[in-house]
């Protein structure tokens, strides 16, 4: 098997038997509000720090997901989680509450699908009965860590994106009711030399395209095999670039089929979110909140979620490095 | 399967067909010097920053490991990597050079065995031909990020540990010559309330004990089933505590069987390393450099590497949080 075959097939068809999402006020003000399990009216969620609020999001999303799956914490075999914080403290402290054996992962905003792919791999291998995949982000922890202190209220260019405050979690099992994880395409680093952290959509677009192409090559599928293909958080600028690149490469995407979670989670024209949403919570809350519901309702039959990640750090930026990007894609199918 | 079964069995017995280690001057001055593929005489490795030096370690260790495995970069199916840096930039930038589909992981110093366990899971599942597991750490990047600017030359209490400058990488394949990865026990978060980042050995010891106990429970094995059981980086203080806890729990360990990579990598009495080595490079260079060689020579038949991680961040410490700890264990056997 030569490189190029970067897709994992889950022949046992692991089932998402429960999922949940918990979000902040801006996401609750957006078009998908009705799809979330809990909307916090305030960004601080009555916690003493933004970081503690982010951790709470993850704990609550996990609790709801386990409840929906009718699985006790004690029955959970593994938790695969990650977030954007240094040393992924939100997931780790949530893992302390969850109590299950824990695998921390990091792929910036692509962590949502990285964790889902790994949880599906674990269940598919027969190594556990229930695996939880969950990620979170918080607008203020991300602003504070990656940009400026939140008190600054700093202005941003229109190419910048707005980190989603939200957590999403999914419980996977070898059988049960719910959508099925079919396969996952693990991305490679793509870095075309973009250095502007206020234009991460443009930086990430080529990585999304690379993974989508690899997915089609590996699986023999085409855009028409999916009812919906969504990128994680390319937002206005990046999603347009991805569409152009795919068209150039002979894979034209219809607007009805090709979406972006960063454009779905907010009313971009009305809400003050610059180019759209970002953060690993972005693709997680759209996928686990909105898209899984549409799969269950029969509105969608098969989707591909291509979560994109910009793998820079403030330090790598300060040292003049460009932004290495990645995208991981997971195909989810409604149970027939 | 109820919780408690936290061990993955690799029935296809993935083989470590090549491994390599690259270290800094202090490790080159230690008792295992002859086991490393490359010893850098200077900490900066002629790079412009400590971070670039750390990345170089990872790139070189990967190159050597692939060379030993007789695998081209282009043939590599997946790279599973991580490090201690914020947003794991060392691994990510190395992944850009390596070019293979990439899964970033974070478990602090336990990342060494987390990445090996996941790479073994991928190969065992038949999802790839060659998987690279690799981690790195650098004394000066860790000092700078977690403690004080390196220029300070700050003094430390004797319970503190010295971060290993080194990278270790292993190439796994479904068959070939080399030691075999038998199984992996994924750890849970254990946090007994210790808040002192200058005593991480004590914080991590209970996590090591929890995973060792889980491993014995899951597998039905006992200490005598292993020629050597090594913890990752508990060093003098933590290793003593782990031994006491295991004895209390009815699992006495002989000194000849129970070691610690943090005590093996340096001559702790002679070198100025406080309680001993730490960092995800610590267990990686001892395992991939020293222990694999002893397995190949027939000196050891079966070992258990229990990599320990202290999952704090400077921010979680500043916010008064205790240190959540974890340990992941991987059993490696010489091919009969």
TrEMBL record, chains A, B:
Task: Identify the Gene3D superfamilies for this entry.
Answer: Stage V sporulation protein AD
At the top level, the lineage of the source is: Bacteria
| Coiled-coil region list | none
Q: Which GO terms describe its molecular function?
A: acyltransferase activity
InterPro entries noted in UniProt: SpoVAD (IPR010894), SpoVAD_sf (IPR038369), Thiolase-like (IPR016039)
Q: Which NCBIfam families match?
A: PRK08304.1, PRK12404.1, spore_V_AD
Can you say what this protein is called? Stage V sporulation protein AD
